[in-house]
Amino acid sequence: MITKTVNQKAWFLVLPVLFIVALNAIIPLMTVVNYSVQDTFSPGVFFFEGTKWYREVLSSPRFHGALGRQFMFTGIILLIEIPLGVAVALAMPRKGPWVSVCLVLMALPLLIPWNVVGAMWNIFALPDIGLLGYGLNWLGFDYNYTQQPFAAWATVILMDVWHWTSLVVLLAYAGLSSIPDAYYQAAKIDGASAFAVFRYIQLPKMKRVLIIALLLRFMDSFMVYTEPFVLTGGGPGNSTTFLSIDLVKAAIGEFNLGIAAAMSILYFLMTLLVCWVFYTVMMRGEES
Amino acid sequence: MAQITLDRLAHSYESNPQSDADFALKELDYVWDDGGAYALLGPSGCGKTTLLNIISGLLTPSRGHIRFDGNDITARTPEERNIAQVFQFPVIYDTMTVAQNLEFPLVNRGVDVGEIKKRVDEMLETLDLAGKANQRAQGLTADEKQKISLGRGLVRYDVNAILFDEPLTVIDPHMKWQLRTKLKELHDRFEHTMIYVTHDQTEALTFADKVVVMYEGEVVQIGTPEELFERPDHTFVGYFIGSPGMNILPCDVAGDSVRVAGHTIKLDAEYLPPRGARLELGVRPEFIRFAENHESGIPVSIESVNNVGRHRIAKVRLSDLSMNIIVPEGQALAATDHRVVFDAQRCGVYADDHRINPTEDSRGFRHDY
Known about the structure:
A: 288 residues; mainly alpha; MetI-like fold; 12 helices; flat; B: 369 residues; alpha+beta; Rossmann fold; CATH 2.40.50.140; 9 helices; 21 strands; 33% strand
């Protein structure tokens, strides 16, 4: 028989982590929770308001609008970036000197600071001087993202696809590189078609990294702020005002602390919930 | 099922091979029988996997041709060659069930549904996987997965050959024996030509009718397990096959007497070795014995004696040479005055690592195996 030594002192080793997490996550979060249930008229004077702000946020058409645009934006970029990323990864060379060239090219957009990406596209797409904007108009398209909601949407999406598809490519490529040659050889011998190789070897082997890619892209795009803010500032009108832009307007622009805090909590819970649902659905059957 | 002809086959991984050393596989010229079980045996890097991949069509040889039943298939793809291959690590399609895995090669070839069902059911039965037919292949053990890999080859009744690339590497020792028995049984039943790559002599000797021993890109001997043991053609074969391997002792040869470290050993035949060649005497530890009390023999000193179960292995020293001797069970070793006797009929003479034959006229009194 092996007797296990029981030593509860080990729990003390967790204390430093608990301390750091408390400082950087729990305490700020609790502050927001605090604001979301109170109202104030002057510094230091607070009234408890219960769920008032939550009810107000959930029933406001403005919030519904921002939320709807947010889901639409996230949905569209996921539908484009995940398949495109996988396709690019499949097309990349597996061996030879071109591998590093491709990897560096792919990594480039990821290295550019987000506000710079926004600024780049802002100028790039300007109809009077930007290469893209001027070019489109020269070709006969009536394109002006500062005035047309559709053009603004298209530009925001194109920018996100340009900026973030690389991440999916790199993750998918990592998944592909981990497949041993024997799988491809066996498939050849079994007479599998190129589609069957993708469907039964590459896709299942990429599944885990694709789940990570999907979760990362979901979270990032659901919280997107900097790039569309720099590009369109949420306009024209409210047409590209996503949740986080709306939240900042409420918190800083209008100084509605209660509303902004309630929005933040709801926003956080939604992100958490959607991630959990994604993960649970995708991993179902993985254990059996 | 096919007879496999290797017609002056050679392969180099370099684009422009200059010397012999650039070749991973040096020129081969052999015909392997239809329905035979061949094992390619050799250490890592000896070219056995290269040869296997050339036969399966995953690799195109730099020189020479390969023929199945006389048809040149050098330029054909693995699929066109109609062969099956089992790899070192089990290859299964994770998302499919066991039965779907076995169906896959047949579905791809457009075999009709009834026939697929019949063959897959039979194969599940043969591989003892019937109970797991509808289970996802992902959760199975390594040996079950390897059985599926094998089964995907066997469901295609008409394969020309089944190739194995060290298929038991990741299998637990107690399962190895079972799977090997299964392979042997399947070979007897389907009579496919089977080629089995391994670096494990036990696997090779138990599985194959003919063992192809490879060393540094060359086939050094093809023979039955008995031939490899009794009459190794190359010092490497002597050393690689057997446990412990053959004793290889530098020597001088004059007619039927061999001088090793200043002592003369009489052989049962005369040899005329090529001039200037490096000569060695090869004798297996099984064929050296300690001399009886008053018998004459070559004096040696014992360095160590290891008990390995049924017998003991004595490591002895003869001036600066070291030898292994197998001491049968029950034989006592004297405390001092150790002398050894070589079995003259079981000694071989090697010139530059290759076994040489005795001269023609001395053959008459030589024991033939």
